[in-house]
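hey so i finally got around to running the thing on that chain from the lab meeting. sorry it took forever, my laptop kept dying and i had to restart like 3 times. anyway pasting the input first so we r on the same page abt which one it is
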Amino acid sequence: MRPDTRGPAMHDDAPHPPDRTDDELARLDITVLLRYGLTAEPGHRRTALFGDGAVAAAVVLDRLGTEPRSVAFLADTVRAGGLAHAAELPEPLPRPEAADLVREWLRAGTELVGGIAADDTAATWLRAVATVIELKQRTRARDRST
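ok and heres what got predicted. didnt touch it at all, straight out
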């Protein structure tokens, strides 16, 4: 495996990935993480999707002014109707920039032959993204009040 030149070497058995800033996370290709992580068995790819991938998605969506409840609602929609249904929504999130971005992520999931399992994993991932957005917003609010 090729070492990560930005930090310590990454190995499948490495205890922790290198620390990344929000700016570094925002540059991750979330679409690729979804393609390889949604249908992956538990392991490195799934961990990358739910770790850096969820935080990266939260950073990007938070910067676009997305409310966590909107992402949580989308997660419920994916769980109820599936990725294909959610990808065809005219407005999966209220803000146009966020909607376009999330639609791309949803479409990446529809390209997989994952069925209900991929839909459920995507819904769980979106819930994780919503949780991280909420934590970021609460932390900012707390920091402003002190």
